[in-house]
Amino acid sequence: MARMMLARLAWATGILLASAVAACDVAGAQGTTWVGTWGAAPLPPTPAMGPFPATPSFENQTIRQIVRVAMGGQRIRIRFTNEYGTKALNIGAARVALVDDKGNIQPGTDHPVLFSGQPSTLIPPGAPFLSDPVNLPVKALGSISISVFLPEQTGQCTCHQSGMQKAFVSDKGDFTNKAFTAKETTEVRAFISEVDVESPSGGRAVVVLGDSISDGIGSTVDANHRWPDLLANRLNAQGGQPWGVVNMGISGNQVLSDGAGQSALARFDRDVGSVPGARTLIVFEGVNDLGVGLSKPEGPFAQIMKAWAPSGPVTAARMIAGYRQLIARAHRKGMYVIGATITPYGGAGYYSTEGEAVRQAINTWIRTGHEFDGVIDFDAAIRDPKNPSQIKEGFHAGDHLHGSDAGYDAMAAAIDPSLFK
What digits encode the pLDDT tens for the residues 30-53? Predict the structure, then answer.
């Protein structure tokens, strides 16, 4: 009996010690917490389809990617991803450094990225993988370089396809700690999905659950001119509590159906629920459900629309039920949920009058239903007053769907900063 009691005491003590260690990892040695400050939602590999190339693969190459963080901190960590890989991903080496406005590494800031104290690791198939913390002070709205050496054939990567930022791919070899002439450039975000910063208590993150309009399609490449970037600018300028902005927009994504990545409902737990420090969610999706589900496009996009076919009828009632699911799941995590109205798409290749009617019904519910905790009226911000089914000229990128730089400026200006408390 005495031995059994001692064994139980040892087990309980072990649990308490493990809990204490975990708490220290979360809280940090000086009362700090980890907060998401940048993100790019991973996507499953795809073959070449219509105007879009196949998802790339890499072998014995270095990829150098530039990301801009919203909130600064004294230490960072990187979430790598092999979540759609079918075999272990070999990270041969990785390094991180501060970069200037032109993407040049700032002297003295280059640091190795370690994994359980080691310079390399194997990421299991289907898994994300957090790096060890890196002692690299980074300022709010500062940019960092993440260099990753991939010594073995990766297969088609777990990538975010629309980075709107050039990444540099080397010829053969490990160039993580040196300059190199790029063999090619790409705009995918390869094998990275999040950057966290260690922040004093009070830091928090806003997560954007969106589609290509949040992805920044139509904005200037390498300029950080997506509307979530501009929101980060505004939140930083107003002072007060620091905010990370984690953009989990996926081009082509839908609320109800898989296609361009998993649906918003399917990917919520990974892309929203797992972000550390997430306190606010902005839901800005729906136009692809309307376009794919309620139109009959022709030409090069017909193949894509067929691959993204909805899993059921697209109606206002069903869409609203989907939004209610997102609200309820975010509320369970204590998050404040903001709904953004669906922007006009008249003149786009998949526009339909049926889709426009559903858009209007959804937007009326977002504005007047009082089920979201707050509302951003993107529709009102960029629609043409003379033709409300279309985006105002100059505010779209020529396709009547995605914003131009001016359009994204108008969208960011329409956001009430008091929503972020």
Answer: 678 999 999 999 999 999 877 778
